[in-house]
Amino acid sequence: MDIQHLVDRLEDLIDEGRHLFGTKFTMVDEERALEIIDQMRISVPEEIEKAARTIQQRDRVLAEANEEAARIVQQARQHSEDLVDEQEMVKQAKVRAEYVIEQAKIEAAKITREADEYVLVQLSQLEQQFTHTLDEIRNGIQIMQYEEPAAVEVEPEQQTVEIEQNDVSPEPINFDRPAPVGSHI
Predict the structure, then answer these.
(1) Confidence check: pLDDT of 181 > 60
(2) Cα angle vertex 126, ends 45, 139, to 5°?
(3) Which long-range contacts (CB under 8 A, 24 or more apart) does 175-183 make?
(4) Contact predicate 1/117, CB 8 Å
């Protein structure tokens, strides 16, 4: 499964989560989040495998370029042996072979550089995706760790609040009756 698709699914899960009123926190389905993370762990080797295939393709192209260069060199040698008496043609064949070898080396270096750049781009994108996903996971964990406790209903008899000794009013506050006028509460 594509890592980008999994990141989108995780983002959708967070968007679907229940927003805690008055906070920036969202509750998400832990089981679904963990399932997506597990799928990401499975998908990461696939992304690495894609990069490995790219490197193998680069190596194959380099091998073909080297074989082509060797074949051209061999052809140049054969041609030069056939034309031993003709010095100028031998020199031209050698120059041509060296030119072809140099061009093959330049092409191989270019292919290597492009393949390395491609792999670097792929790995950078993968790193960004993982960083983004990890940030989302960490945010989810923080949300879950610092979630406000649910409100507890209190019986009317227990609704009085004790005020500390150094407060102005020594009486407990009773929420069943209105506060006196001029009260600081």
Answers:
(1) no
(2) 105
(3) none
(4) no
